[in-house]
Design a protein that fits this description.
Order of helices and strands: HEEE
Largest sheet: 3 strands, antiparallel
Structural class: mainly beta
Distance between the termini: 68 Å
Strand order of the largest sheet: 1-2-3
Number of strands: 3
């Protein structure tokens, strides 16, 4: 089957058409940080800067925190060593997530 229209060929672009060309000229863009992360070194000091490791750390929960009780299990005893239960399940089938409801019937022997 022939192609209806040939693909468009991009026009040649030189450095003058490139957006960052003014950055190479003298008096161009100033790319320095607005606020330095560290204080400047004084005299012969060497300053080493690093992010605060405590900034993102999770703290222990306070003693006043109370977790909500979970729902009871959906399970019933049928007698004679058998019970039935219902649960939710997830499985990947062929690259697609399958959400399903499972019914479990258990016999003790």
């Amino acid at each position: 089957m022939p192609i209806a229209e040939p693909p468009v060929i991009a026009a040649f672009q030189d450095l003058a058409a490139f957006d960052l060309k003014p950055a190479t000229a003298s008096g161009g863009m100033d790319l320095r940080a607005i606020k330095p992360r560290c204080a400047p070194a004084a005299g012969g000091e060497i300053v080493v800067c690093a992010p605060d490791p405590e900034k993102e750390r999770l703290r222990a929960l306070p003693d006043t925190f109370v977790a909500d009780e979970a729902l009871p299990r959906a399970r019933r005893d049928l007698g004679g060593g058998a019970d039935i239960g219902v649960r939710l399940d997830q499985q990947r089938l062929g690259g697609v997530q399958s959400n399903r409801v499972m019914v479990d019937l258990n016999f003790k022997f």
